Amino acid sequence: MRQATHGDTVRVHYRCKLHDGSVFGASFDREPLQFTIGGGQVIPGFEEAVVGMNPGDSKTTELPVEKGFGPHRKNMVAVANKSQFVGRWHLEPIVGQRVQVPQPDGPPLNVTVVEVSESDVTLDANHPLAGEDLTFDINLIDIV
Q: Which residue in 57, 60, 28, 63 sits closest to 45, CA to CA?
């Protein structure tokens, strides 16, 4: 049986759990995730975990922060004036809300509203799972 290797396009089902056991995401109730190993489409530790698996194999793997979404970086948290936020994006900010912020050079930046005061809005551009150790249950469906 053929094992998944660098350059292969694979289809997998997965379940992502946080350190406390809560499930953050899963694909078992929809189409499998398809990606090319080494293509940078998924986090590095997830790609590495699939290498060597055969179609039909299942495994559970723990990914430290460095192999997942990286550490939470304080320099990616910024405070904006609430009036500018409301005026520019025509949104009333709500904690937990995800917003795309236009960038002068490049694609929009996805940020999360983490705090709202009378005058300010605190925005976090870190991935929501930055700073988290993750556990993945992975089932390799096939190698395309």
A: 63
Number of residues in the chain? 144
Are 141 and 20 in contact, with CB atoms under 8 Å apart? Answer: no
Q: Please check the confidence at residue 30 and state whether its pLDDT lies above 90.
A: yes
Nearest to 52 by CA among 104, 83, 8: 8
- Angle at Cα 25 formed by Cα 61 and Cα 18, nearest 5°? 55
Q: What 3-state class would DSSP assign to 111?
A: strand
Q: Cβ neighbours of residue 70 under 8 Å, at least 6 residues apart?
A: 127, 130, 131
Q: Quick: pLDDT tens for 106-143.
A: 898 899 999 999 999 999 999 999 999 999 999 999 99
Question: Average pLDDT of 6-25?
Answer: 96
Tokens 């948290």, residue located: 77
Q: Please, which residues have CB within 8 angstroms of residue 72's CB and are 6 or more apart in sequence?
A: 126, 130, 131
Domains located in the chain, CATH noted: 9-70+131-143 (3.10.50.40), 74-124 (2.40.10.330)
